[in-house]
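Bench notes, afternoon.
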Amino acid sequence: MFFHHYSQGQCCGLIDLMREYQNLKSTVSQVLESASSVIVTRTTIKDQEDLKWAVSKHESAKNEMNCKQKELDNFTSKGKHLLSELKKVHSSDFALVKTDMEGTVDKWLDVSEKIEESIDRLRGGLSIWEDVLSSKDEIEGWSNNSLPQLSENINNLNNSHKTEEFLREFESEVKNKALKLEELHSKVNTLKELTKNPETPPDLQFIEADLRQKLEHAKEITEEAKGTLKDFTAQSTQVEKFIDDITAWLARVEESLRSCAQAETCEGLRKVKDIQKELQSQQSNISSTQENLNSLCRKYHSVELESLGRAMTGLIKKQEAASQLCSKTQASLQDSLEKHFNGEL
């Protein structure tokens, strides 16, 4: 290794230096080997605990390297000392030792950088996992709270306008949560990239599938509720319009009957008889509407239908009153016209 004409003392000194250098290199290499094995071992991430374990393993490797930094400094210092001694004796080993020392230091820096990068990635994955769990809690909380409320509103249609408003908000929230779920899916893909895992962790697969099922159920319930509300509104509006129309018509009938009674003409009597036929004709319409309302009440529990029921009862009474007035008016007119006719004779 060294030129023969250098003193034995110089040779022994260099051999001791070389031995110390190799011993320090061996210590540094062991640290590097241990740290490198952490980087190359790919952790299969099944759940959040696996990810936490991977972060912890990388952090331990980082701490180990930080603790052994003194060994690296000693190795570098010893290497520089050895190089200066080799330079003095013009040893051909100078270049080899220099390359070896620089290579070891470079590897240390490279491994340290990779561990830091892995920790950042895995922590990023852990943060995303927390986000996913938070989104899961939000969607589940909304589903557990809002679905029973919607069912309650639809089963007790006490205020159809309020229910319609709630349904609009609910539908908007379903769309909002669907977007949230797409964000969650995107985050899961990012997490797979960060953890360098081609497969979606089973825990996250389950969460995503479960939330999709909940949202699909919410969409189905929304459509059912819209159908129920549409049917209820259409039928109750039809009954309400019928009551309003017939109430207005009966008011006009009563007015006509009074006019006919005052006029006391044959034309008036004919008109009263026509009104009687119309009242009889409307009787069947009122009966069928009453039946529709009864069937609606059996189908839906609603305070609104109770008030329609009261209005319907009022209409039937008005119709009966109009029929009685018609019969009285007809009898009175016939009597009056007969007297008038007999008087003329």
